[in-house]
Amino acid sequence: MRHAEQQRFFLILSASGGAGHIRAGDALLQAASHSDLPIRAEHYDCLDFTSRAFKKLYAESYLAMVNRIPELWGYFYSKSERRPYKKGVLSLFDHFNYRRYLKTLRALKPAAVLCTHFLPYVSISEKICADGMDIPFFAVTTDFDVHQLWVDPSVRRYFVHHNESAWQLHAKGIPRDRITVAGIPIMSEFGKRRSVLRSRRRMVIPSRNFTVLLLSGGFGVGRIERILDSVVDTLGSFAQASFNLIIVCGKNEKLRSNLGGRRFPTNIRPKLFGFVDNIHDLMDASDVLVSKSGGLTSAEAMAKRLPMIIVDPIPGQETRNADIIVEHGAGFRAFDLPNLGYKLRRMLETPELLERARTATRELAKPHAAESILTDIVQSLTPDHRLKGRKYEDPYQ
After folding, report:
1. CB 245, CB 212: distance < 8 Å
2. In the Cβ-directed half-sphere of 37, how many Cα atoms lie within 13 Å?
């Protein structure tokens, strides 16, 4: 074990505009705490350095938009690809909050700042450039694609999930030697695969039943119930077969209450959960995931070799995630609820479709992304010190 004074301090910053950014930061923190690298790390939500009112405004305005009027978010996402940052409510962070934030950065003196959201660096980029400050920012992207909002001259290196992400980022003007294809950071539990039969026995569900995992995610109460109706109708139509249906309601207590008294066809064994911290175990027990295509959920599913049926992806980043997953054959996209029933039926009637999709997840799985990112940054800070790191293919060679 190295002495503390020899360790470099890595500051991990996320922003609570969507849970995935926080989860990615937690994954980096977990990897740092278990690493043999000469580092120590802390993880903060950068919005905690702002007023409570601004944090609430920022987080809730995003969630309200994507849940209630996702088409508006899709429009904003598309339009903002064509213009630089500094538009709209995000710029308020700069004018009213950067003093406290910058003071914290100066006090902590990090050797590296790993950002799982663009806000921690774009919010102060102009200020640090004007003051000549040298803050080592590293952008750790959390979707399969990289939006223009991530692009900023203050970033030393970008970590992306896929070769296509790297290609698109280079097309936005980022030099190739500042892009690393490493993956989206996920918790180490998703890199370990327990046998399906053992996982089902641990959950006390029939071990031989085809098992569907349904994550409520950001779906509204009414919408997830209609999605569930489609899944149940499809499974129920296979009267001679038996199924397990795992439903995770998260913190949506209204949904859990609504589903608690529901009756299911006799050939379906339901398992209802609220908020859980062992999604990795539920994925181990499942044959297919029905979900939106959030960056972290998608990366976790790919690491678990779990094919997806993607429903209602948020226009913008989630539709681009879905495009890459479907293009690689690692999942299927349902365009509406009848189409969801069709896709699930096809999977049940043609098992080789599911097997091919499971094999295809390997191309998108990067379960050790967090460790690889940390190693890459340490190497970049100590170029003369050779460390054993996982090497990734350069998509441009």
Report:
1. yes
2. 31
Question: Encoding tokens for residue 36?
Answer: 């043999």
Helix (H) or strand (E) holding 268: strand 268-273
Per-residue DSSP letters for 198-233?
Answer: HHHHHHTS-TTSEEEEEE-TT--HHHHHHHHHHHHH
Give yes or no for a contact between 282 and 208, defined as CB atoms under 8 angstroms apart.
Answer: no
Q: Which CATH superfamily is domain 4-186+367-381 in?
A: Glycogen Phosphorylase B; (3.40.50.2000)
Return the CATH number of the domain spanning residue range 191-364: 3.40.50.2000
Residue that the structure tokens 């296509």 belong to: 164
Residues sharing a CB contact under 8 Å with residue 284, sequence separation 6 or more, in sequence order: 193, 194, 195, 196, 199, 304
Residues 294-339: tens digit of each pLDDT: 999 999 999 999 999 999 888 888 999 999 999 999 999 999 999 9
**pLDDT tens-digit readout, 137-180:** 999 999 998 988 899 999 999 999 999 999 999 999 999 999 99
pTM score = 0.89
Count CB-CB contacts under 10 A for residue 373: 27
Rounded to an integer, what distance in angstroms lies between the CA atom of residue 148 and that of residue 155?
A: 13
Q: pLDDT digit string (tens) for 5-53? A: 478 999 999 988 778 899 999 999 999 999 999 999 999 998 888 777 7
Where exactly does CATH 3.40.50.2000 map onto the chain? 4-186+367-381, 191-364
Q: Does residue 214 contact residue 231 with C-beta atoms inside 8 Å?
A: yes
11 vs 48: CA distance, rounded Å: 14
Q: What is the DSSP string of 280-334?
A: HHHHHT-SEEEE---HHHHHHHHHTT--EEEESPPTTHHHHHHHHHHHTTSEEEE
With vertex at residue 225, the alpha carbon angle to CA 222 and CA 229, rounded to the nearest 5 degrees, is: 140
